[in-house]
């Protein structure tokens, strides 16, 4: 800790991070041990976080992340979208294909930014807000590759006809970005994905990941 930082805020943020890393919640005693502070301090931290709906405690007294965190998380999408747009525009124009940024939303893949090429006679229509299962479509499969630690070929996923008949997809996950699961990809009218497309998508995903770090 330095003179410019708040010890209480630091501890509160550490509580949220600890709770976010567990599926079954943590007791006051467990949090006290992990933070290296006494139980009274933990009670005060939890009470404050509960007031803001960032933490909730179940019947057994275990603390868990509250719904307030989800409300904060929704505000992240516009910031992530803004950071990704330059790379998406370049990708769409280079390949003449519809480019998109997709993030995990619960158990689904959610397209949060879409850029269509300006010079093509026709291209695949795709819209921000489109949802699909993580195990269907290149965008979701790329995210699953990263989640499973499969980063061979930088986690590139290629699909054909899974979400739209006659359309192929290529997507690469955002790697090394803390707190964000997502992918960058393109959708194009083709039976197969040219090798150049895959390499360009991987490069764009790395560019977006760097902008978000």
UniProtKB/TrEMBL annotation:
Keywords linked to the UniProt accession: DNA-binding, Transcription, Transcription regulation
Residues of the HTH iclR-type domain: 6-67
UniProt xrefs under SMART domains: HTH_ICLR (SM00346)
Keyword Lyase appears in the UniProt entry: no
Residue runs in coiled coils: none
Matching Pfam families: HTH_IclR, IclR_C
Domain IclR-ED: from-to ranges: 68-213
Domain of life, per lineage: Bacteria
Record InterPro entries: ArsR-like_HTH, GAF-like_dom_sf, HTH_MetabolicPath_Reg, Tscrpt_reg_IclR_C, Tscrpt_reg_IclR_N, WH-like_DNA-bd_sf, WH_DNA-bd_sf
The protein, known as: Helix-turn-helix domain-containing protein
Source species: Streptomyces olivaceiscleroticus
Lineage, opening ranks: Bacteria, Bacillati, Actinomycetota, Actinomycetes, Kitasatosporales
